[in-house]
Amino acid sequence: KKDDVQAEQRRLQQTQKQLREEREKVAEARKRETSVLAELEQIEQRLGDKGEMATEYQALMADSAATPDSLYDAGAIAGQLGEAKEQEAAWARLRQKFPDHPLAQRAALELAHAAYRQEQYAEALELAKAATRGEEIKAEALLQMGEAALKLHQHADALRAFQAVTATPGVDAALKFRALAGSALAQEEQQRWPDALKLYEQVAADSPDATLKQWAQERVAAIKAQQKRLLQRATLDHANALFKARKFGEAVAQARAVTQSDDVETRVEAFLLIGEAELTQKRPAPALEAFEAATKVQGIDAGARDRALAGSWRALEAQQQLAEALARYSAIA
């Protein structure tokens, strides 16, 4: 009897568990149904709103006594409806009928932004230029001019526009630092490294935009690395010139200064130059050391490796280490 009671209790517990699970399923189904109904209501409301907005747009455009405000509103409504052509038509009419009105300049700027997003940079540049007539939006329009000119690789025009932004009294900080960043990029694209670095460092230090600040910090690091590579290449070029002038000791000293370069080609060329200079001075032991170091550089190309092996062979031969010299020669052959 005790076993029967326990079995009945287990059956009761199982039944209660199943009931709880069923109730949870029903509750979840009702929740999903409520969510779907709410979404359908929102869609229906949006469709209704769009219908009303389309009617309002048509009424504004049909008004023979249109005002700058009504035409600007018509364009804004078309934009909310996702009708780019209708928006352009409304704002083109606004700019034609009321070219000196501030809303005409605002419309030109909005169209410039849209053209820029669509990668129509020449059109964006012209529209932004027209928008600079509006005093309240002049800095923003100049910024858009600079960014469009930069995309067109018109660096001088881009720099003038960006500098005009930063020179604007009381300019918004966000616009100012975007302009400084644009100036830095224009300078970098022209390989004016010191000017670019100075501007990037200013943005990296003071920009209120965290994303822009991080980007500028990355560009600072990249330009410093580039400057280091350029200095190392200049040093190596000087070493080559000294070698050709038969100033072998000086050439070796210059080349050794760049044997730790992060640039594989520069590093390998430095070792090869040292090896050749030492061989010319009849110093086969340090020559061999340099050629062997060249072969161990990670990422060395096949041609440079063969030159290094050939140098090692010549250095070993000069030391009468003929067996090892033959092994190097075989590696090349």
Question: TL;DR of this structure?
Answer:
This protein has 333 residues and is an all-alpha fold.
What descriptors fit this protein?
flat; single chain
Structural commentary:
With 333 residues, the chain is an all-alpha fold. The chain is 82% helix and 0% strand. The protein is built from 15 helices and no strands. Helix 3 runs antiparallel to helix 4, helix 8 packs antiparallel against helix 9 and helix 9 packs antiparallel against helix 10. The longest helix has 61 residues.
SSE pattern, N- to C-terminal:
HHHHHHHHHHHHHHH
Share of helix, binned: over 70%
Largest sheet: none
What percent strand? under 5%
Average pLDDT score: 86
Number of strands: 0
The number of helical runs is 15
The residue ranges in which pLDDT falls below 50 over 5 or more consecutive positions are none
Structural class comes to mainly alpha
